[in-house]
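Notes from the 1:1 (GR / supervisor)

We went over the backlog. Supervisor wanted to see one worked example end to end before approving the batch request, so GR pasted a single chain during the call. The sequence is below; no edits were made to it. Supervisor asked that the structure be written out right there so they could see what the output format looks like.
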Amino acid sequence: MADDPTVRTRTVRWSDPAQFEEPLRRLTGLEFMRAFLRRELPPPPFMELLGIRIASLEPGSVAFEFEPAEYMYSPLGNVHGGIVTVLLDTAMGCSFHTTLPSGVGYTTIELKVNFLRPVTARSGTLRAEGRVVHSGTRVAAAEARLSGSDGKLYAHATSSLLILKPSSGGAPTTE
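Structure output shown during the call:
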């Protein structure tokens, strides 16, 4: 395999995710997300792996960008739908996170994605824009759109998110 010209390699570096625990307890969701935008916090490991970067944010809305690449391909010759889903789920979840007080977390409990056109390395930079649709006391709803720089829509999604309140030990819980 080492001499096979069709084999490619990729090296990924990431920061220890344990460093996010204290800021998550101390900062509001908006402050936490702004720390990523200002590069005061490093990207989480999955964002390093996929080359996802935060592009903009405001309360209730976050946008991410990425360049589709060959290492993301399925055997069908396009970016695997799971990667597109990760990008959309991230935009929706982070848009909701911007509305939360310090110490409160969330988790996705339902996700629906509509894939409208194939994503390939030739698609260029794609932007996932997420926004909060509804925020209740236990459950929230968000939506996201994945578009190209030419305005073409590649996918769109909706999600339901469960709000995780801090427990007496400080960690978010559903109880």
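Supervisor's comment: The radius of gyration is 17 Å.
Batch request approved.
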